[in-house]
């Protein structure tokens, strides 16, 4: 099947507006890319029939639709469709022909100036100096001579334009394999009607996913406003999921935040990433009468999704124990949505507080130094947290902790001597002594 | 002072209307004397408890001990806090397993309340420990209903200065106190103050965590409380 490219030429558009326009063009094809500083290129292979109109046909219908909308948005633009990217580019900029098929491209391109080949500036200038002003004149020169004179750039470019040699298009975002779109006859602006459309789209996408035994991990919804701006909302899940009602619940919080303004006219839902999700069979228990057959509503994974969507997935964590002597690096908060990693065994003899103060808090401690000892041998007798005095009635320690010698970056705290202390009120603390200073590091129960 | 029989009768009538015995029939044990003291025969599950502490650490540990008993080997314990100050190795001796805890951070109190509500509604959650305080009657009743519908148990934890939950089933205050001379610091002693229990009387016990279980040291049920109850 011949590929079809649409090149859009917007001569006087601001850069910011152009990137918006690229996003906007996503409504016509999933393969869209910015083309230089003044245009957009779309691979519309297999997309045109969606825009069929009685009078203008498929591609004509697409062009009409696009021009109509661009005109309404106040963007001056010309568009052309051809079999190769280079031909479409040339026609949009140097010709008034809009739709060209196969070999008719040669006839359409022949009278155009050499600049239409989108050549580097110095090659185009050199061609003009040699009197080769039109495309037709360049095409008459034998390939070998061109190669000798201009290097491989020019012949290769001719191949790209006329023979469809490789001319890749890098989409501004990866094309989604599973997507569904609704173009509405009338713009809508209420959350309720947007939810209705989204429900429809989710149903469609989830059915596709189910057929392929996949579940979505990340999907996004593009909402096109009447005035040409696009709003995105995305939904991520901790496990692959194709339960439309669950996804709907995750989306609904986002939809409320959209600002409809003049109303939305098009919605496109795409699955950005999907993972395998085999079909599961209901148990007899789930199918027994009087019970909701799909009782996934309140499963634990979905709870993780809901919490993660609202609070951020990095805030919903499992706590992993690590092999380390340093208190602050022996635990790690890992997002619950990520795969489980092995945990270290925690030796029971290491007594640790329930709450850790990070970073440790500087405190003033009075110590008693035994006769003939140094400051290092002293055990604490009282300390202050702010103004409040804590008289120590019971102390256990010291327990010396230091970073393992094989670690490259030794902690800035170096070696620490920890004491477990109880004050006269019954409060229990974890304090440590490090090079002449004392710190509070945790609270015991 | 023996309770007035008229009041006693009225209480029974209210209890039958409130359906208290059936709603709180499922319990977990705390210690023998406390179980007898509570009108439910133990700490009722599927409902909301409030745990205050002289500092946060004893309140968290008390809630964690009870949560571990509710969750058993397989249940999930949700921990909803404004920061990451929980240090898991310190909780392990109290019967909590590291892989059954899901730690959720929500900085704003409103988000925290929302998270508690969502988690209490989930039937695969056995227990929720959350830093939530100062709830009005409507909010705490909604939490209570969520807990009853799913079968999760909520422990709303706060420091001494924190505001109260309007309608918990029990309200505790756990204060660290000095142990006997010679006790070890990893076997803490708490003054366990039952400030309120629905349909029951307040009470006070000194508990110690020793050898992997809670033990009573001595109980001082204060006469003033009994008169109130």
What would you say this structure looks like, in words?
- The complex is a heterodimer of chains A (445) and B (229).
- With 445 residues, chain A is an alpha+beta fold.
- Chain A folds into three domains: 5-163, Reverse transcriptase/Diguanylate cyclase domain (Alpha-Beta Plaits), CATH 3.30.70; 178-276, Dna Ligase, domain 1, CATH 3.30.1490; 355-443, no CATH class.
- Chain A contains twelve helices and 16 strands.
- Chain A has helices at residues 15-25, 57-73, 85-94, 104-109, 121-129, 135-140, 143-150, 153-163, 191-211, 244-255, 284-287, 300-311; strands spanning 5-9, 31-35, 39-43, 78-82, 178-188, 214-225, 230-241, 264-276, 316-321, 331-335, 355-368, 379-385, 388-401, 416-423, 428-434, 437-443.
- In chain A, the strands form four sheets. A six-stranded antiparallel beta barrel of chain A has the order 11-12-13-14-15-16.
- In chain A, a hairpin with a 4-residue loop joins strand 6 (214-225) and strand 7.
- In chain A, helix 9 (191-211) packs antiparallel against helix 10 (244-255) and helix 10 runs parallel beside helix 12 (300-311).
- The longest helix of chain A is centred in the middle third of the chain and has 21 residues, at 191-211.
- The termini of chain A are far apart.
- Chain B is globular and about 50 Å long.
- The model of chain B is unreliable at 221-229 (pLDDT under 50).
- Chain B has 229 residues and is α/β, with parallel strands linked by helices.
- In chain B, helix 6 runs parallel beside helix 7 (137-150).
- Chain B has a single domain (5-228), classed as Rossmann fold (3-Layer(aba) Sandwich), CATH 3.40.50.300.
- In chain B, strand 6, helix 7 (137-150) and strand 7 form a beta-alpha-beta unit.
- Chain B has helices spanning 5-18, 20-23, 32-37, 56-71, 88-91, 109-121, 137-150, 223-228, and strands at residues 27-28, 43-44, 48-53, 76-81, 101-105, 125-131, 153-158, 170-177, 189-197, 203-210, 213-219.
- Chain B is built from eight helices and eleven strands.
- Chains A and B meet through helix 12, strand 9, strand 11, strand 13 and strand 14 of A and helix 4, helix 5, strand 5, helix 6 and strand 8 of B.
